[in-house]
Amino acid sequence: MIRQADLIERVRKYDPGVDEDLLNRAYVFSMKAHGSQVRASGDPYFSHPLEVAGIVTDLRLDDTTVATALLHDTVEDTIATLDQIEARFGPEIAQLVDGVTKLSRLELTTGGSPQAENFRKLLLAMSNDLRVLLVKLADRLHNMRTLSFIRDPEKRRRIAHETMEIYAPLAERIGMQAIKEELQNLAFAELNAEARKSVLARLEYLRMGGADLVTRICEELERTLASEGQSATVLGREKRPYSIWRKMEQKNISFEQLADIMAFRIIVGTDADCYRALGIVHGAYRMVPNRFKDYISTPKRNNYRSLHTTVIGPEKQRIEVQIRTRNMHEIAELGVAAHWTYKSPGAEKSIREYRWIRELLDILDQASDPEEFLEHTKLEMFQDQVFCFSPKGDLIALPRGATPVDFAYAVHTDVGDTTVGAKVNGRIAPLRTELHNGDQVEIIRSKAQTPSPTWQGFVVTGKARSAVRRFVRNQERTQFADLGRAILERAFEHTGRELSDKAIGNGLKKLAAKSAQEVFEKVGEGVLTAREVIEAVLPGEKAAWRLGLRSLAGAFSRSRNPKGGDRAIPIRGLIPGMAVHLANCCHPLPGDRIVGIVTEGKGVTIHTIDCESLENYSSSPENWLDVAWSVDEESTDFHVGRIDVILTNEPGSLNAMTTVIARNLGNISNLKITNRSPETFEFLIDVEVKDVKHLSNIVAALRADPSMHTVTRVRG
Ligand code: MN
Known about the structure:
By secondary structure, the protein is of the alpha+beta class. It contains 28 helices and 21 strands. Strands 1, 2, 3, 4, 5 and 6 form a 6-stranded mixed sheet that branches. Strands 13-15-14-16 form a 4-stranded mixed sheet. Helix 4 (about 65-70) crosses helix 6 and helix 11 (about 195-205) crosses helix 13. It starts with a helix and ends with a strand.
């Protein structure tokens, strides 16, 4: 185990201003919190956060991140709480620990999800501070180093698979070459032990040329460069079994040459030195054609820069050479972590404030070819996305602003159509709730449920929108047809005939309709009038028809029956935007005496019988329709009633007015000052009420208040 003092020494090497006290406190806190817990290896659990902190110092991250690494499992695995962490270590470290904890929980819920790319994006999106991701990668690296201690082979495999699919590519994405390679090799050993063994055996065979071949080649390269006056450090290494295997897999080749298993790096001082060194190498050895790449003038998208070439080098071996400066080398090995280098305190601060996305976009800025550009856009696109989970752990990607209804339709149209409610993270939430990254969404369904037209007001996905619209349109057609049938039934009665599909069938040609159903719909929608249908179906009935209508229009104004006549068409299910609308002029309420006016293309608009605007329709009695309320007593639907209130202009009177309305369970949905004078204020108020009785109660209660001058219901 790394000792407390050693850890601080490691940080001091790259950051002389290290906060020793912070690291000491984090060390002790974590050690105490983990107490007697042990790892699968039998080691004390505390060895794990300590090793993770060690990896973080290899990446030369700041002391805040090192402390986070020490504390990263305390909230998830011990009785320590985030509040305690915040109280002792401040909000920054608390936030970082919280981020790592959340990423770890994500891991548990999803297992070996095949949607690796989405998952990687989710991890990135959730790491709002890139240091969260760096600690998470260090955590994963140590867990992979100790993977063999886990007894359950299934679990080992799952972790290795996840590492290969998610964490190694993530490390590559942020340019951390060394961690990526180690993760891949550790996962490779678990996932394909046989392949790895054969690669190792082959390496053994090729190494027969001498164990110190790498060293000999390094020395000769250094000598060659020095003889031309170029000082350089040459590093040589064998490639890792996994990258050799990948090459064999991808290119379908076997490896024969040392060039396939060895890589040499020439480290020099400046960019110009790189090209000088390249010239010297090409001058001394024969270059292999088509292997030269200049990533200095055109860096890779993860900011990797180097010159690559292959030559027939020392010992007549084909070797691959990478030429780079020290700085390029650091960036290649550490990736974004290299940005946290400690040149100046000011620079460090500004880098801390960088959002992770800016760092990544900086890297991606270098994108030059179409594929890289695509990567770039993909990343920007996912900024507009949220990633949510089903209870089974399936990942659903949705646009930002998406709601549980969008989620339901993304799962399946049937799920969307039968949605009645939703649980977000285990709690019942309104269907219009905006979903966030990482939310777990459970859809509550009922076979009896149908999509609600109100969903159109908040869904954001095309799939949900079109499904709801399609449903509403069907519903509308059905309602138009029902309404049209009711209108025609009544009209037929006036002629003494009975309405039937067959009777309508006779007039289809004249009416340019394909079926009786279509005739009903058109009548309900107001495209055809009842008269036109009667005239088409029953020629010669004109006179009787007109007579019947006149008596009907007259009957409305005399009627004293609030429930309407026996032949009244029942009005229920007042769904906005459908076949029946409530007039905006008079705001009819359940209980009001009402009349329907058929308008072409709109269906029926309901007015109160004393609405002034009915004057406009007095010359077209064929558009009048006898309607009556059919309201379910249990209904919790609310309707908007409008009242005009003149209020004495004195302190507290507005308060008195709203209090009276509220006490009578009226909900104000709109309020407008229409007139003001030194003595009085006049308001137009829309109140949501159950029915006309409810509104009358409110009006009466207002009139009883001394501050109210005049209170009247507004119609027309
Ligand atoms: Mn851990």
